């Protein structure tokens, strides 16, 4: 990409707003001055590939490159859907082989590592093991990262985690107790991106 195309691409990423718990705040990871993206989590890259890249590439890349990358992004989005059909997966597997052939016509040979080749086997894995979201590690990694944030004394890791977990459970109980009152807790506070606000504005 040229610098102008990078600016367009990064401005789209900078302006993206997601609902709570859908992904982290990706706009914080974008640096417009240095033209860099940093600090993304692995789940954020999935969100970008499945939902954002097909939109962001349209104004910043040539049409023949954009069409191939959109095919790849659609493959991952359909593969990660909640319901999978075996006949449809067989069609997807045939289509991803053609997509990779189109990519070989555009990208240099150094791009095609073993990880790019692995894409062609993901359809078979989904046929055997079922939907992807029952098998991926993002919820477990997020929980472990949350527990690690309790550690303030590295000499007593387990004690810090146990103390922090008990404290959070106590605060959760108190928050539920005050749920119907005027006290704002994490259960009744407004969301970061509240959809009702936009409904009220446009209505």
Structure keywords:
2 strands, 203 residues, 58% helix, two-stranded antiparallel sheet, mainly alpha
Structure description:
With 203 residues, this protein is mainly alpha-helical. Among the domains are: 1-61, no CATH class; 138-190, no CATH class. It contains 9 helices and 2 strands; from the N terminus they run αββαααααααα. It has a two-stranded antiparallel sheet. A hairpin with a 4-residue loop joins β1 (30-31) and β2. α2 (42-56) crosses α3 (63-79) and α4 (86-106) runs antiparallel to α6 (122-129). It is globular. The two termini are 41 Å apart.
On the 0 to 100 scale, the average pLDDT is 83
Q: Helix count, per DSSP? A: 9
Q: Give the DSSP E fraction (strand runs of 2 or more residues).
A: under 5%
Based on secondary structure, the structural category is mainly alpha
- Stretches where pLDDT is under 50 for at least 5 consecutive residues are 197-203
Radius of gyration: 22 Å
This entry's quaternary arrangement is single chain
Biggest pleated-sheet summary: 2 strands, antiparallel
Quick synopsis:
The protein has 203 residues and is mainly alpha-helical. It is 58% helix and 2% strand. Among the domains are: 1-61, no CATH class; 138-190, no CATH class.
